Each structure stands twice: as structure tokens, then as C-alpha cells.
């Protein structure tokens, strides 16, 4: 009887059929991160409560959703809710670290919040950040890395991007003299420009005391492509606007002629919600917002420049400009599953079933493993049919039944489980068997 | 000013120099696990308290050292203290899982206990288990897999092994009619046979009411090699002893002539502490108990057969025989560091320093990356010397300085940072540069 133990809400078991795909995603991402000069780090999941409570201005939400605990020494602790907080801590505790510091971390984070599609309580973040680079070359590198990573994962993407300086400049130019608070709220609202109707936006702006007539020009600009927008703003005397435009121009200069550029779409309304960003921001979507003919509007990654947060966190008089992004492991997994619903996966290529020859079979399998073949051996005393069924259920592509006759004649037959065909090999022809299986 | 945030006691940041080695260990282990037919799973770190409290007879200790927490819904939760508990849960919640089920999991576990060398509060376990196999072929597979894994990690090992049925049988035969409790305590005591003096052992046994004269035969047998022990016990009518001996014989039969056998040492006193084992047990040590001329007595892995625990946990009338082992990631890391104290590591092979040519350099680097070269580019406006220093500090083996002259002449010089030599290549000769760097 199942004792009825359940997983904590919003946490999951990943059985091999799922985990094999998740591991594949991690391996692809890691190899691309490394190629672009990011090195791995690992930071703790349990942290001092004070560290976790120190970071965000939107602290209240984070604090409510933080899992809190204490140890036997009654210290106040918590589980990390993102990897940026432990990354900031790592930089601040290593004052002699060589900058620029480029790291990636793939690790679990925790939020005790509402559970829905794409939002779990325990989930894995893949974060890639650089500290100590002012040049837009950093952003250009992220665009190219993103393009390569998703290409290797077989996912066509679209990268929406913007610049927060430009966005702030446009808002202040069009809405006139507004408070920091209204600016901040306007940014968060405009972030939903593509999702809300014009009417809904107007209603929300009116709640902040901004009348519809003032929004006309703003909305018009937000609908422009980059060329037209640049022309339109060419006579602006806003420093934010000119800095924003020049940063975008610099980014374009690095990306000229690259494959990344083909995926990029300027989105002057994009803010990426979170307060911390100070320059470039981007958000990644599946191209055409469809996977296997189903709508797929979830963001599958994104990032931006945040020049102030680590600077403020460390507060030693130096500047710590930073750019970082996240790849969504869970959402990428969902896409790969939707795309390949029929694909069977097995980690081994061959299954050897002994038939009265367990020691000989075990030796045979050992030789195959020494040669690098991924192979498993039946260890039951089951009927042959049951063992064949097992190989079938596990989707193992090739099977060898090794009976006394095979040992005596020094010959084995490899059964191709998909094709239903059989091929004969000498029992000693390890290399031949390996070649046949791996082709 | 560093704000003074500290890590929770017994938890650590792993900077790239460490993490690169840890990732390498994981990669090696995973590839070997997969070759032997074990597939990856992932289970939650936060679990229901009742699940975590359900497992061990030595529950009190575990419960004290468990990190406990609750969520916003006031559910009682805890952090897992090992991977066996979530593995048992996974098997029990998937009653239709295909057996034998072979999985590995590499994940973090938590124990709020004393911190010392080899014992942290947050640590990573690498567990490899199979459920549903009675045959000693399972154990034989573990011995071969262990041998291959440590060989690939460059660590010479010794595997001490024993059989718990044999050990129990010997104790009951020599000490006579003893209670289950005394048997259990005797096993735990004898587990320290190689560490305690004879006198210390006698004192401890006397506390249990067992006098020295009864211990004579026991101690004598525990000093025998397998051949002599088998002969000595050949006339025993203990069923436990004969089962234990026949299991060891079966294991030897599978391993005859293998490399694994050369590493194995029969240790009739070995129990592996933990109560759960029912048959074969083994513990892995560095050969000669020395690393880089320093004593190294810590166990670096181990495992055993536990036929009862999942059976009891699931309690559905079926048997769930199981064998499993752990590889100690943290301790393996310590060994590799001790062995290669001088070894410098960099994840990239080449560093390109633009000198007034940032766009051209960025394009050059992009081409190298497209060709698969692991390369980074200097993004500062630093003086050349500072950029060279950076490459040096990061231990990057090759450097290219790309100035306007190099662009004009379409030629680059690759500096070998170790040898101090330079080699010239055409700027377009991406394949030539790749080949040179990767050799």
C-alpha cells in the first residue's frame, strides 16, 4: 500500500524520461556558456535571513514568498528566491576577485507563492552574469550566446529588446513633469503595452492622474520601428534618450551581419518588469509564439543590464556595472516535450539478456562497457518474454539474447527492436558490435 | 564596504577555480553511471515533514539534525537529509514503474549537525541505486562501475567489502544466545574493529554484558582472509553464515579476472554503520590511505544491499530488493585538489584583446566561437598591460592582441602565455588558429 506521502505543492519528481531531457538542456547550456567565457560557480541554497531580506525595493512580496527557517542555534535563515542575491553576496565577500567576473550558475530556488503553468515553488534557474563591463559588447555577447544556445536546443526564437534609459526618456518627454513614483509605475504599465488594449492602458494611466491627451504621443512613439523612432527623437534634448539611442546603436554595431540580429526585434515598450534594470533589457520568446501548433506566449528567458544593484549592495565607492540573463530550464523542457511528443528515450543502447549464462554474459557486457558501449544486462531469472518486454518498455534500441548455444558457437544475434531485424556477430567482435549499435 | 553578510555555517560558495573541478567530477560520474545503465532522476529538496520523519529506526538523530520549516499554509516541511528517502517516496508514488529501476541522482542534502572536515551542513550526494534485483550481479556491476569511475578521476582505490548476513552469523555463532539489541550494538562496535584497540573493544563489549573469553573466537575469525574464514566456517550450521558465504562466492564468480577484483579487499568486520543493510556492504578508500604523501583515511564512497527498507516503506506485499551506493563529491574534490595543487584551470583557451578595433575583434571572436573555440574578449578600455594581466590571472593559455595594424595586414600573433612564444596566423585562418590552440 502506498503510504500516501505526497510532494510539497509546487515541487516535482522528475523521472528518467523527463530528467534525461532536462540533463540534455543543462549540458547544451553549459557548453555554450563556457564557450562564451562564463565559468561555473555554486552558491548555497540556505542563506542568512538578513542577506535575503536586504535586496529588493519590492521587498514585501519577496519576503512573504520566502521560505524561512531556523537552525539548532536559533539563527534566522531562509531559502534563496533567486541566484542574483547569492551572486551579489559572493562578489561582496571576495573583494579581490578579478573583474570582469563572468559566471554561470544552475541551481534551485524557492518561492512560496501561487503555483501555475511555468511557476513552481521549487524551480531551477540557469543564470549567466558578468560584473565589471560597461561596454555594450557584453550585451552583444549575450545576444549571440542566446542565439547559439537555442539553436542547439532546436528552438527558433525571437529576442525582443529595448533600453530602459530610452524608455524612461520617452515617458518623461511625453508625459512631462512626473514624479519618480509615477515614472516607475508608468514603466511597469507600458511593459504590458502589447498585452493590454489601448482603452485598458488609458484607464490605468488615468488612475495615476495622467489624462488621455497626454498619452497620444507616447503611444504613437511606442508603435514605431527603430529607424522611425530614432528619426522622430533626433531633435530631443533628453540626455536619457540620447544615451539610450547611442547604446542601442553600439549594440547594433557589434551585431552587424550576425545571426543574432535576425532574431532580434526592437520593442520600445519592453521593461522586463523588475526594477533593477538600468540599460538594455531583452526577453526571449518562441518564434511565432507557437510550439507544435499550440499557442506559446511564455517568456523562455531574458535579461538586462543592472549597473546599480551590485554597486549599491557592495557600497565600497567602486562601480560594479553588470549584465545578466536567465534561461528558463522548466519552460525549455516543456517546449522540447511539446515538439517531440513521440520521441522515446533510453540512456542505454543495448540490453543483454543471459539465458543460463549469467557469468559469461556479465563478462561480455563488461567488455562492451570497457569499449565505451552504454549497455545494461538483465539480472532477473525472468522468462525470456518478460525480459524482452522490459527492453521494449525501456525503449532500448538493441537486444542480445545470450544462451548456451550462442556461447558454444561464439556467435550473437543483435535484434534491432525498431526494425525487427537481426544481425549476427562473433561474440569477440566487440568493436564490430559497438560500431553497429552506435550507427 | 562589505556589508558583512556571511554564509550559513557549513555552507560554501564555490568559485570557478573550485567549481570547474566539481563539475568535472560530476561529468565523469554521470557518464559512467549512464554507461552502466543508470538513468538520471531529480527529486525535491523540500519535503513533507512526515515523509522525512518516517524512515529510520535511528530516527531521533536524523530528526534533530533536520532543517524544519513551514509554508504560508502552515504545512510542516523539512529539507531532505539524504537522497534515499526521496527515492523511496518516488518508487512508492509510481506503482507502475518498470522494475528493475536503475537511477542516479546528484543533489544537495542538509544536516544541521556538527561541522568538520568532510562534514558540511549543505552538501552534495551522488547516489546510484537499483531496485528490483536479487542477483549479486548488481553488486558486481557496482564494483566494476566504481573501479571505472575512480580510474577516470585519476584516483587509485581500495574497496573494502563484507556481507552483513555473514557478519551477523559470525557474531551469533561466537557470542551465543544474544538479543536483537545486543546483536545490533555488536555490529556497530565491530564496524570499528580496525580503528579501536582490542582493549577498547573488550571494554565496550563488557558494557553489554559480554565477557572477554567469549570474544576470543570472534576476534580471531575477524582477522582471517576470505579463504581461511570460509574453511574455518565450513562446518557451521548457521543459515546466515552459509547464505553470506554463498553470496560472496557469487560476487567473486562475476568478478573473476576483472580489474575491479584487484581493488577489492575482504573485510569481515565491515558493517557500514547504518542499520538498513541486509547483504553486501562496501566502503571505498584511497589506496594506501595517502594522498600527496598526506594521510587520508576518510571514506570516499560506499554502499550496500538493503532489501528491506523500500519493501517496508511501500508495504504492498511485494518485495523490493535494492542495492545502492554513494560517491562523495566533496571528498573526491578534496583529493583532486591535494593531488594537483599547482594545476591552473581556465574554462577558455584564448583571450582576444582589441586595441582600437572593438567591432572587428568582436567579429573575429564570433567566428572563432562559431568554429567551436572557447574564447573570451576583453571588453574594457584598459591599458594593454592591464588586459594582459587579466589573461594571466585567469590562467588563459593563449592571447591575441588585435590592433589596427593587425587588421590592416590581416595577420594575428597568438601568444602562448606559458611558453612566452608567438605564432603568426592569417586573421581569416579560423581553422588554423583553432587547431593551434587546441593542441
Task: For this entry, give a set of tags.
homodimer; alpha+beta; BirA Bifunctional Protein, domain 2; 2 domains; eight-stranded mixed sheet; 18 helices; 18 strands
Tell me about this structure.
- The structure is a homodimer of 439-residue chains.
- By secondary structure, the first copy, chain A, is an alpha+beta fold.
- The first copy, chain A, has 2 domains: 16-339, BirA Bifunctional Protein, domain 2 (2-Layer Sandwich), CATH 3.30.930; 350-438, Anticodon-binding domain (Rossmann fold).
- Helices cover 43% and strands 21% of the residues of chain A.
- Chain A has helices spanning 16-35, 49-53, 59-65, 83-93, 137-152, 164-175, 180-190, 198-207, 212-222, 226-232, 239-255, 259-263, 309-314, 329-339, 358-370, 384-393, 404-409, 430-438, and strands spanning 39-40, 46-48, 68-70, 76-79, 101-110, 122-131, 157-163, 264-266, 280-286, 290-291, 294-295, 301-305, 322-328, 350-355, 375-377, 398-403, 411-416, 422-426.
- The longest helix of chain A is centred in the N-terminal third of the chain and has 20 residues, at 16-35.
- The radius of gyration of chain A is 28 Å and the shape is elongated.
- Chains A and B meet through helix 1, strand 1, strand 2, helix 4 and strand 5 of A and helix 1, strand 1, strand 2, helix 4 and strand 5 of B.
